[in-house]
Amino acid sequence: MKIFVYHTPELTPTDHLPACAVVIDVLRATTTIATALAAGAEAVQTFRDLDILTQVSETWPADQRLRAGERGGRQVEGFEMGNSPLVCTPDVVGGKRLFLSTTNGTRALQAVEDAPLVFTAAQVNRQAVVNALREHRPETLWLVGSGWEGSYSLEDTVCAGAIALPFYQELGAEMLGNDEVLGAIALYQQWQNDLVGLFRQASHGQRLLRLGLDEDLAYCAESDRLDIVPQQTEKGVLKSIGTVK
Fold this sequence. Notes:
Layout: E1 2-6, E2 20-24, H1 29-38, E3 43-46, H2 50-57, E4 65-71, E5 74-75, H3 90-93, E6 97-101, H4 105-111, E7 117-121, H5 126-136, E8 140-145, H6 154-171, H7 179-191, H8 195-201, H9 203-210, H10 214-220, E9 230-234, E10 237-240
Parallel strand pairs: 1-8, 2-7, 2-8, 3-6, 4-6
Antiparallel strand pairs: 3-10, 4-5, 9-10
Helix pairs in contact: 5-6, 6-7
């Protein structure tokens, strides 16, 4: 098993794909996806383009859909919700499909959508994803951070390190596909007991705090809260593969 960390989707190789890709957008898309599915959403369908999202969602029964859009941390006008995981309660999302477009996370998903196996991960479901990876044992694994508009983000990298660490402890240096893996592990080891402190200093965490989204940030920093693994079942569509022990 070789693990590679790519800080943004723009840094992923374009001439080949891994056996498995894990997309990470801790603040907040992949946290929202996991939370929505844990709360009983039928699926989360992701889009880069808001117009295409609107067109596709119109083909879905109105009482079975929610349009969730975010740009620059703010809810898209005319959509039922933004990108806050705290909104994803059973009474809001239960039985419905979320049609989701965000500034960064949906771009990362599109970059790896042709991989044979695609999961999404965040701190809230980190252990469940580790368990799923142990079960599948892909020969090559990409941990793809979403970053912020093409630039590096601390919160995605620290989550990648949290996922990679158990495999490093088990396999040693033989699992290191690139130097970024060891850097991510080191970042997680430094901050694992104060992730919310790290997120508050990160540039995107600062954006969320300026928008008054302190509770979102604190929730996104919680580790292993959800026993759920979102898996791509068709391009752009994520469903829960359930609890992985």
